[in-house]
Amino acid sequence: MSAHTLRADPDWYSAAEALIEGCAHLPTPEERVRWLERLCLSLGDTLYPALLHVLCHVGEHGDHNAQKAVADVLVLALQSGRLPSGRHAAWGAAHGAATRSMGPIEYLCAWHAQPDSRGQLNVTAFDRAARALIGLVSHSDSARRLYCAKLLADAEDPLGGAWSRGTRQALQAMARTWAAAGTPPQRAAADAVDAFLAALRGGRATPMGAGWIPPMPRR
Hints:
Structural class: mainly alpha
Radius of gyration: 16 Å
Low-confidence stretches: 203-212, 214-219
Number of strands: 2
Number of helices: 9
Order of helices and strands: HHHHEEHHHHH
């Protein structure tokens, strides 16, 4: 697959449909994971947020079967260590000199809590995107359990260099709340995101900005 660029007004609906079709109808589990992996690699780090936007679109607008199909492929990707990931600046790295590879939910958390040279994903955009992604993953109980374990492992690794102490505590709060959720996916997602934001802000209310995930840069 060749490198992609974004149009001035991307057709997120069609992109989400294409993602669902591949996850639901490619013949084998390996082909489904490989297709998602190649899509992520073809976009590259600069356009990784576009893949997040498509996943969020599925999480917000897909029906149960569509969300389950995508979540099941994410389970396989997690199990094989091939979760679609993007690179974000490590905590304290000057001018983004050091980066870490992060999966979709971790990437959003870092973009909000530890902004790099692109600036911060505001709390309104983070809240909406994180709820959509966590709700999507929650359509597979296996994916939810695996992702919670991954977030806890990341949060409990102070030597990895990806996270500040405060962000690691917020990730732990998110993962533990999400792991304990016995509610529908949307409610579980809301509780997990609320736990992250409360821990990150020390329980203080967070000012709400405006907007959704900002327009993606074109290259």
